[in-house]
Amino acid sequence: MSSRSPEPPAAPGNDRGLRADARRNRDRVLQTAQRLFATEGLGVSLDEIACRAGVGPGTVHRHFPTKEALYLAVAIDQIRRLVAEGEALAGGDDPAALFTLLSRMMASGAENAVVKSALAAAEFDLRSAAPDVAADLTRQVAGLLDRARSAGVVRPDLTAGEVMALVAGAFAAIRHAEAETGGEGSAHLAQIILDGLRPRPGGP
């Protein structure tokens, strides 16, 4: 019989206070769940996710007692990854780094569309469930937008709120393009959307 104590549970999207091994297991579960939800749909069971992640079913159920808790944690984890990417881009000197982050945001949103749809159906609001994380992402976008505006590589009249709204609306458009073209048109559509943020000759 093992003398190791069981992993303590964590709130959805929160891994603070976890042991290092528990945090690694949780991260592995989240990455596996995100991949399976995107490729196989929401019908995949928690036990199957545990098996594919290489952990015991009890590990998944302790961290995520319901499917809804796992959906929420997957979505929050993706936002945190985008925040980290934004921080890395902010540390560089590319004036057009905003477009790199927005491209990743649109790709992430398309990848996690089924999870976000499930959360919407369950009346979960990510901005309410994880306000600090959502605000962090908006701040990263705003900072990169300021740099892009100063360099003249983005429309001068564009606000961070408008950028976030455009990206949110782009998720549905990209998912539709993927359904129609098998994914071939999604990258082109994302580029068209981003091009609309660039300065126009003789105008804002």
UniProtKB/TrEMBL annotation:
Pfam families: TetR_C_43, TetR_N. Residues 1-11 have a biased composition (Pro residues). Residues 23-82 form the HTH tetR-type domain. Keywords: DNA-binding, Transcription, Transcription regulation. One of its GO terms (molecular function) is DNA-binding transcription factor activity. Residues 45-64 bind DNA. The keyword Glycosyltransferase does not apply. Residues 1-23 are annotated as: Disordered. PANTHER family: HTH-TYPE TRANSCRIPTIONAL REGULATOR BETI, HTH-TYPE TRANSCRIPTIONAL REGULATOR RUTR. This is HTH tetR-type domain-containing protein. It comes from Actinomadura macrotermitis.
